[in-house]
Specification:
Number of domains: 2
Distance between the termini: 37 Å
Number of strands: 8
Structural class: alpha/beta
CATH architecture of the largest domain: 3-Layer(aba) Sandwich
CATH topology of the largest domain: Rossmann fold
CATH class of the largest domain: Alpha Beta
Largest sheet: 4 strands, parallel
């Protein structure tokens, strides 16, 4: 375990000490359930939050995701118990594939042999290399969690203000370090159910309900067929989708993992 990093004390104005600068947290934010959950957590802390939205050229959901982010930003800023300074989201275009570092491309290709990771993780790894310590809101029991535990050794860091996991670069396999060694993972312990419970505890159920998840919306509504829609339905968030979207899911996946008893409303 790494040594804990002590948080700086608050300013003692009586002795003329300069006020401590709030920690800067850089985070990838999609407007989705998981990364918005982390934004809700951060909003309650004495930090400055700098969110980034990286545009994917292969999805139809960009405008809806950005709209959700802006609505949620306004809502979080208006809450009386918000302590964080939340900067406007920085929206960046996707880097052309030809510009990805060769070692990242090779590591992604080898990792995909045993555990499929979307092509976006090449882009994200390249971006994190320029922003070490960038937060990635990977949840428990997901693909990233599985890859990190299979190929990496995780250590938990507690600064006194922030808690997160990061890879031990000396003990982890080279490819997982190449892809994920520059990230921090603040919500690896959280399932969807745990996030839903804490959304409520944070007074952010209204924030939760503004999140967006579908990659291929139809007339501005979730499609019910893409991976995020499927995961949302099967992980207890089916109430977020209209009936037409649920019917598309049922036709495609034939109730494979749908359990109406599991609902995190």
């Amino acid at each position: 375990m790494p040594a804990q990093t002590a948080s700086q004390p608050e300013a003692n104005l009586a002795t003329g000490q300069t006020a401590a600068k709030p920690p800067l947290v850089e985070i990838l934010w999609t407007g989705g359930y998981d990364s918005t959950f982390r934004m809700a957590q951060l909003s309650k802390l004495p930090v400055t939050v700098r969110p980034y939205y990286l545009i994917s050229i292969k999805r139809d959901s960009t405008e809806l995701e950005i709209a959700a982010i802006k609505k949620i930003t306004d809502l979080l800023r208006c809450k009386t118990d918000t302590r964080a300074v939340i900067e406007d989201v920085t929206i960046l275009p996707q880097t052309p594939v030809a510009e990805y570092p060769a070692d990242i491309v090779a590591a992604h290709q080898r990792t995909n042999v045993d555990n499929w990771l979307g092509n976006q993780y090449k882009y994200l790894a390249a971006f994190a290399r320029l922003h070490p310590g960038l937060e990635l809101s990977a949840q428990a029991d997901g693909r990233i969690d599985a890859t990190l535990h299979r190929d990496g050794v995780l250590v938990k860091v507690d600064t006194g203000i922030l808690q997160y996991y990061e890879l031990d670069k000396e003990q982890s396999l080279p490819d997982v370090v190449t892809l994920f060694g520059d990230f921090r993972f603040p919500i690896l312990d959280y399932t969807k159910a745990a996030m839903n419970k804490e959304y409520r505890q944070l007074g952010c159920r209204d924030v939760r309900d503004l999140t967006w998840f579908c990659h291929w919306p139809i007339k501005g509504k979730p499609c019910g067929r893409c991976h995020p829609c499927r995961y949302a339905i099967e992980e207890g968030l089916f109430w977020r989708l209209p009936l037409r979207s649920l019917l598309r899911y049922f036709r495609k996946f034939k109730l494979e993992k749908f359990d109406p008893k599991v609902s995190y409303h």
